Amino acid sequence: MIGINDDVTHTSLDYGAEFDCMPPGTKQCVFWGFGTDGTVGANKQAIKTIGTQTPLWGQGHFAYDSHKGGGVTMSHLRFGPEPIKGEYEIQTNADYIACHNSTYVHKFNMLKPIKEGGTFVLNWGWGEDQLDARLPNKMKEQIAANNLNFYTIDASKIALEAGLGQRVNMVLQAVFYHLSEVLPAEEAMDILKQDIEKTYGKKGPKIVQMNKDCVDQAIT
Q1: Which phi and psi (to 5°) does residue 41 adopt?
Q2: For position 80, what pLDDT does the model report?
Q3: Which of 43, 75, 138, 159 would staple 164 via disulfide (CB 3.0–4.6 Å)?
């Protein structure tokens, strides 16, 4: 293990170059959520669903305060064709990063772990014309320097119009399934809608349809 660089005894080892020890084909995804918005629950369900309904292996690591709502939540998800033994948070080579609360762009360096050509999704309610004015310069530089696939969506508006209030999890989960390339897009949507029927079936067909409509609007 390498600790601090100690210039007193001159016996410290230098850090080597970063490397990726994940099995080939593993997708790494990071989600920044807002306590009670449903992000953590949706990601736990995604691991269960993909792990049981596809040949892929899944792994999740979650960081959040369970004593109160409204705090920052982080979900670290990995999916791949081989067993995943990396029991640590995703610090490098993230394929997909999603920010479910737009205020975080001014508070956290969330794009630091993303790989070149990765996908960044931002829940953004200010309109496309406000992106240049409101996004921090550092984030714009990271998007350009890493040649990212950058998407915005007003998930809050879609959820509200569908009758789901501020529960944006289904909207952004649909976006994840569609864009992450963990699964082929059409297969992913079928699995997600089957999952909706299992999860909300007891609440009646109206609730099931509301969530399915949310998924369709999100993809559109």
Answers
A1: -60, -40
A2: 95
A3: 159
Residue 155: count other Cβ atoms within 10 Å of its Cβ. 29
In a 3-state reduction of DSSP, which class is residue 72?
strand
Token pair for residue 46?
């995604």
Q: Which of 143-157, 160-174, 187-201, 203-217 is the most confident on average?
A: 143-157
Q: What are phi and psi of 137, to 5 degrees?
A: -60, -40
The pLDDT of residue 153 is above 80: yes
CA angle 122, 126, 130 (to 5 degrees): 95
**In 64-146, where do the E strands start and end?**
72-80, 94-99, 114-123
Q: What is the dihedral of CA 160, 157, 44, 24, to 10 degrees?
A: 160
Closest C-alpha among 126, 128, 124, 98 to residue 111? 98
Can you spell out the DSSP letters for 136-166? -HHHHHHHHHTT-EEEEE-HHHHHHHTT-TT
Q: Can you tell me whether residue 65 is helix, strand or coil? A: coil
CA separation for the pair 73, 34 (Å, rounded): 6
**Span 166-191, mean pLDDT?**
90
Which residues make beta-bridge pairs with 146?
none
Residue 121 has pLDDT above 70, yes or no: yes
Give me the half-sphere count of Cα atoms (radius 13 Å) on the Cβ side of residue 102.
18
